[in-house]
């Protein structure tokens, strides 16, 4: 191997997203790739597949082969200390997926390495959960990170749960009033806090959705709500307590303290509240903004493992080039830089495409298509969240709205158009919006996808609101029409979902949840009507079908609200009625004729006649 060309990979396997970065020996960041989350408690075995997918994506963008990778350092949420059961299990799973030597640790330790540039000290990490890591004199300690049932104090989940408790007390008249009583049920798309309890009992209220309420709490706090402000202040205080506890356990005075994670970005004041709380307890504390995000912390640990020369110049190069890739995600600020698109890269498998015979071309296309379904499967937790929102929204009179341009827009319109005949839905339940209007379905409308005002206007015309779910379809994740429509919808209180193949593209900034299967580069570079389009079609089918099943539009696996508009569909209706009512085809036909060929009514009539 040419060691001058060797690279390492750093992986940040978070609860909602996995980020992998390829680093050269000079400290240059060559690429960043992303995939779905990596917490096995949330994503199951897909967590490990997502780590491989993120690595594959980063290597594809860098145009580097696995053979050039000498080591990887993986930080993974939901994985405990080395030699623990969770660590051993994760290690075994990754050994079958990563074809290179690697080290595995809890994601808190890569966040520590990033925040303090690999130096000793204390780092408080507060996102969905909360953990504090202290490292000094060869000793490493953890504070909290115990999960939301009896730990993770100061985390987004903790903030959300405290807000729900405060809202409940206020509603009962047991404490002071707060806007949270009205805001939180709306954010969950339910009528009341008691409905939220029912969702939790049924398993339809996930930890991710609970944690996301912290954003609403922060907004209410910024509007002057005393209860919400107190919750954020207490969160900062608890996080400071964790930092102080770590310092005491390490027994070394004046260790540097840093912080990272989404909680510190909830409001511009959150980091300041934390720093103030620390200084009240440790007046001489040295508190620093985080230097690098966790994925670069992982890369730094990988570089140290292979004994690359790391000095100030190396770290400057890491920082300089790191900011050129995706989101340089730090605790007290966010620098957005448009990422290089995985969907635009050249596929190494098809470099000689123009020299192949017909059978070889078709075989290659088919081989690549086989990658789509597994990639979509890895996104099921995110797709499931979109379905939950759609079910709640439609139950309250809202709509499921697809917005896209070009191929993506056409796919959305097709899925929406199939819902009325298949599930008997009203036309305003599932709506397809396409840049350029209906005429763009058959013929491209020049400049339509770049018209941001048109995207906003479509949302205004539909009077989008808090019971609606808007799904933005953009393979690149940069389509102005779609992004503007989602932004307008979000401002009006709707839930927003992005379906893309570039997870950190601008569309992510206006999405409540991102569905981004890593399908890899296309056979013809940039021709996203192929694998990317297929993935979008699969996801749309999954969202609409699962939603209609949950809304009772399917009995067993049969369409009981089928529109019988043709001879074929009437024959199908007869079979459905006969099977579900336990009658003959002729009896089913008679019942259908008596009920204007409405399947559900025909079944009900026959079952009543049988005394069921």
Short description:
The chain has about 600 residues and is of the alpha/beta class. Helix content is about 45%, strand content about 15%. The strands form five sheets. It has a five-stranded mixed sheet. It has a five-stranded mixed sheet with strand order 8-7-6-9-10, with helices on both faces. Strands 14-13-15-16-17 form a five-stranded parallel sheet, sandwiched between helices.
SSE layout and pairing:
Blueprint: E1 7-13, E2 18-24, E3 29-35, H1 40-43, H2 46-62, E4 69-76, H3 85-95, E5 102-106, H4 107-115, E6 121-126, E7 130-136, E8 139-144, H5 156-172, H6 180-187, H7 193-202, H8 207-222, H9 226-250, E9 256-260, H10 270-281, E10 286-287, H11 294-305, H12 312-322, E11 327-330, E12 333-336, H13 358-369, H14 372-377, H15 380-395, E13 400-404, H16 406-423, E14 430-434, H17 452-461, E15 469-473, H18 480-491, E16 495-499, E17 513-515, H19 531-550, E18 554-555, E19 558-559, H20 567-581, H21 585-594, H22 599-609
Parallel strand pairs: 1-4, 4-5, 6-9, 9-10, 13-14, 13-15, 15-16, 16-17
Antiparallel strand pairs: 1-2, 2-3, 6-7, 7-8, 11-12, 18-19
């Amino acid at each position: 191997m040419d060691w001058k060309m060797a690279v390492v990979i750093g992986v940040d396997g978070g609860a909602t997203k996995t980020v992998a970065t390829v680093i050269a020996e000079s400290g240059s960041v060559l690429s960043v790739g992303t995939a779905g989350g990596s917490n096995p408690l949330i994503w199951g075995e897909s967590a490990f597949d997502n780590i491989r997918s993120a690595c594959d994506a980063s290597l594809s963008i860098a145009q580097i082969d696995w053979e050039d990778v000498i080591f990887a350092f993986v930080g993974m949420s939901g994985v405990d200390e080395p030699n623990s059961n969770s660590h051993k299990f994760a290690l075994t799973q990754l050994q079958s997926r990563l074809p290179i030597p690697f080290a595995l640790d809890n994601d808190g330790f890569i966040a520590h390495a990033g925040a303090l540039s690999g130096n000793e000290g204390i780092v408080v990490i507060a996102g969905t959960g909360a953990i504090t890591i202290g490292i000094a004199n060869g000793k490493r300690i953890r504070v909290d990170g115990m999960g939301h049932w009896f730990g993770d104090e100061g985390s987004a989940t903790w903030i959300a749960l405290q807000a729900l408790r405060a809202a409940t007390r206020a509603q009962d008249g047991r404490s002071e009033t707060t806007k949270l009583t009205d805001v939180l049920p709306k954010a969950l798309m339910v009528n009341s806090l008691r409905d939220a309890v029912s969702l939790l009992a049924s398993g339809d209220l996930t930890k991710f959705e609970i944690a996301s309420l912290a954003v609403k709490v922060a907004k209410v706090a910024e509007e002057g709500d005393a209860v919400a402000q107190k919750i954020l202040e207490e969160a900062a205080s608890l996080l400071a307590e964790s930092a102080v506890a770590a310092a005491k356990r390490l027994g070394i005075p004046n260790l540097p303290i840093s912080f990272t994670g989404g909680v510190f970005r909830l409001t511009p004041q959150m980091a300041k509240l934390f720093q103030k709380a620390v200084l009240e307890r440790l007046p001489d504390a040295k508190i620093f903004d985080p230097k690098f995000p966790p994925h670069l912390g992982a890369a730094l640990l990988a570089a140290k493992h292979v004994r690359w020369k790391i000095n100030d110049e190396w770290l400057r190069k890491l920082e300089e080039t790191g900011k050129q890739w995706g989101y340089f995600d730090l605790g007290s600020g966010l620098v957005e830089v448009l990422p290089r698109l995985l969907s635009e890269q050249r596929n190494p498998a098809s470099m000689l495409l123009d020299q192949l015979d017909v059978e070889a071309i078709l075989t290659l296309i088919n081989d690549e298509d086989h990658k789509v379904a597994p990639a979509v499967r890895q996104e099921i937790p995110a797709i499931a969240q979109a379905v939950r929102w759609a079910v709640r929204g439609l139950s309250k009179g809202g709509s499921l709205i697809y917005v896209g341009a070009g191929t993506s827009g056409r796919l959305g319109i097709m899925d929406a158009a199939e819902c009325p005949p298949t599930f008997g839905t009203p036309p305003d339940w599932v709506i397809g919006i396409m840049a350029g209007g209906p005429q763009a379905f058959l013929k491209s409308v020049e400049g339509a996808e770049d018209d941001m005002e048109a995207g906003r206007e479509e949302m205004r015309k539909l009077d989008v609101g808090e019971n609606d779910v808007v799904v933005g379809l953009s393979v690149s994740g940069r389509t102005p029409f779609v992004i503007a429509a989602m932004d307008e919808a979000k401002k009006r209180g709707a839930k927003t979902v992005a379906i893309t193949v570039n997870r950190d593209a601008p569309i992510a900034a206006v999405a409540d949840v991102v569905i981004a299967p890593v399908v890899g580069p296309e056979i013809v570079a940039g021709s996203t009507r192929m694998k990317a389009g297929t993935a979008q079609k699969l996801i749309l089918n999954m969202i609409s079908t699962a939603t209609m099943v949950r809304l009772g539009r399917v009995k067993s696996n049969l369409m009981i609200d089928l529109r019988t508009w043709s001879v074929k569909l009437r024959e199908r209706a007869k079979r459905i009625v006969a099977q579900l009512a336990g009658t003959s085809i002729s009896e089913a036909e008679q019942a259908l004729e008596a009920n204007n060929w409405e399947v559900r009514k025909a079944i009900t009539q026959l079952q009543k006649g049988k005394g069921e």
